[in-house]
Amino acid sequence: MSVKRDEQLFVHSCRTDSAQGVCRTRGGESCAFDGAMIVLQCIADCAHLVHGPIACAGNSYESRGTLSHKGILHRRSYTTDIGELDIVYGAEQRLFKAIELTIADARPQAVFVYATCVTGLIGEDVRSVCRRATESFGIPVIPVEAPGFVGPKNLGNRIAGDVLLEFVIGTQEPPLQTPTDIVLVGEYNIAGDLDLVEPLFHRAGIRILSRITGNASYSEVCQAHRARATGVVCGRALINVARELEVRYGIPFREISFYGRTEMSRALRSMAEMLVVHDPAVIERVESVIRDEEASLQEELRRYDHLKGKRAVLYTGGVKSWSIIQALMDLGIEVVAVGTKKSTYEDEEKMKAILGPDAPLYENISPAMIRKLIREEGADMLIAGGRNLYLAIKEGIPFVDVNQERHLPYAGYAGLLNLAGEISQSIQYYEREKRANAPIKREVEKDLRPVLINPLKHSMSIGAAIAFQGIDRASVVMHGAQGCNFLGKVLLTAHFKDPVSLNGTKLFVEDVVMGGADRLRDTLRETESKERPDLIAVVTSGLAEVRGEDIVLEIREAGISTPVVHVPTPDYSGGLEEGYVAAVLGLLGLIEPVADEQSFEHASRKIILLPGSSLTPGDVNELQLICEDFGLNPVCIPDTSCLDGSRAGHSPVSVGGVAVSELIGCADASFTIAAGASMAPAAERLLERHRIPFEVFACLSNLNESDRLFTLLERISGRPTPSRYERQRRVLRDGMRDMAVRFGRKRVMLAMDAERAFQLAALLRPMGACVEAAIIPVATDYACMIDAERVIVGDLATLEERARLSPPDLIIANSHGRQAAERLSVPVFEWGFPAFEQPGFNSSVSIGYRGVMDMLCRIAGQLAH
Ligand code: SF4
């Protein structure tokens, strides 16, 4: 380091002892206590005990993205949580006891005890308590006297460095030394940055003896004084440590950065130049690593060529500003404005060295200023810290968080690829948001194995039985052998966790041989006399269908007065979805035509809702409520909202749902809304028979389709959207932008009925997730429009096979998919039929603004695992 530069540091940066001059702050930073914690808490095999009231520890708990392989204590929070009496009488005894308990709980290598404003103000002698504790408990207990009022975060960083110099560095000797041992100072391993950097040093034969402090163990910090060279990664924060290592132990230092290709290569070279006196071959090894890495990086970056020429506004702090500028320039991105509120004069010098003397630096940065700069400079993105995220979300600006809250490492060559990926993904998200979804058409593949392994498919009769649960006082009779009825009832009950109506004709051998007609007639008569239902639904199993019985004739001959809907549901054809649709079509057959077609007028506020089988009972309820909020009177066919867990008591007939009388009389409805791709034929049937116009929503599980629903409701009701939905929409839009980074480039596999797969894919795609494959049980008309890379008719073994070949980040499947996911060690989100383990599945809402937001949060929760 040149003398001139060193002098500048002394005056403007971190070397002076004057609190005012220590580290320039222009506001917008946290306190010294936080700064000290940022540095020291990375030492993850040490406990970190905050001595103060709850705010200091509570507000900072898990707020930093530092990762560690050396322990877990950086993620544990200990505080004395002092109260009023402690403030009056002093809390030193309490602190001593807290140290004892912390040691017992954490079994740490050392304890760092942090003074805070209140304990600093009341004059707690933290230092002497720590000394006593060290003697009593036999492990280092180290005071960190950086209460927030002494200055900004940067001062806290420096105090932490002083603490390390006073109490830690030089207190242990390494068991082994090499000529290329280095110490990294000021690297905090945010999001695992070091994982992308350390292998490069390792390949160049350079050993990182000590990390101060990202991914550090206590002992390696103790041994830092035996390093041959120091790399100062965040120049401003811990320059005092590097300087003292040079003064006390003769270890040279250089400032380096790991962000971007240029800086990473420069960092490797800088370290090699300092080490060459100990190992003459180090430069050659480093050059070889740089050659290989830069060549493969160049190749990999080709896929981000579209970023070249994009324009960025940058607002981050300290060393990050200039090094991120360099990283962006490595990607061909032009930096059109830089906020320097948190930068030192030295940082600014460096920025000018990179961007030229006319560098667009803006000290007086504010949200309004950022917005203005983006607009005036025609910027394509904002690169900043997480605190500016809200601004980007509100303004619809592509955004990448480069600060401590980020989730991806950006250091090293691989980190530059991550950064490029994040920027690209963010830009693409907003581009997707702007353009309307173009219809897609894919080829539907079939798994041709002659066996279903871990089937995804359910029978038509199950689908039909579900639909009939949505009719009030319906009795469902399954015409078949006893097992179908019994197992079907167990399955439905386990899924809905509610009593379901499902009886059976219980065919036995003699019925199969002689015919089961008697059995059906008897069952119908018995059902009518005992249960007195408003409707009897007859669903037929494969057994009855194969026997070729004339079910219609038998129903007629049963001579009962209760209306009967018969739905052929052989289990050798179709699946749950087809059975459900068949049942709905059967129900529509009950609607009585209007008496006088000439003088007939549709009831202006009555509409028919046709919810598909993919809607949860909670969804059906939500859809009805939305329609009612527009002053409409929806008749839901079937009204499966009654299966949301609200059924009380036990009844052999279904309870809740649409009344048969209401169903029969709904030919005067003015409009039909079909919710689900499979419901189009039912809507068409209403148009043909009753002249009721319709609109089909293949999916209500994304923003665009929800918008379309609300626009339609405004049109058919003549009323504006109620303000609470406008609010829900704003929340969803912000939430989507917020969560886009979590979903971006995540690879998901779906295994579920086609209609649900359609919905999930339509939910995930706009978020930037890639639906690698949708495994569906049955080929449907609209399967080719599922927005997945591959749509495959198969089973859960198909899912497992595909996922093994190319493991996704998440599997979304029914309860049975959990097994496959566990075997593959892939997180699973349980959704579909059956969903035994998904808490609140049946009352959950996945449609409309509120439901979409809820679904995204649930899925994001699983992705984070
Ligand atoms: S300013 Fe003081 S009270 Fe507030 S967090 Fe910092 S140390 Fe705690």
Automatic annotation (TrEMBL):
Q: Which InterPro entries match?
A: Nase/OxRdtase_comp1 (IPR000510), Nase_comp1_CS (IPR000318), Nase_Mo-Fe_CF (IPR005975), NifE-like (IPR049939)
* TM region(s), chain numbering: none
GO biological process terms, alphabetically, are: protein-containing complex assembly
Among its keywords, does the record have Coiled coil? yes
Query: What is the name of the protein in this document?
Result: Nitrogenase iron-molybdenum cofactor biosynthesis protein NifN
Q: Ranges for the Nitrogenase/oxidoreductase component domain?
A: 31-427, 461-862
Alphabetized NCBIfam families for the sequence: nifN
Entry GO MF terms: nitrogenase activity
Q: Does the record's keyword annotation contain Oxidoreductase?
A: no
The Swiss-Prot or TrEMBL record describes its family as follows: Belongs to the NifD/NifK/NifE/NifN family.
SUPFAM superfamilies membership: Helical backbone' metal receptor
> Keywords assigned by UniProt?
Coiled coil, Nitrogen fixation
Report any Pfam family annotated for this entry: Oxidored_nitro
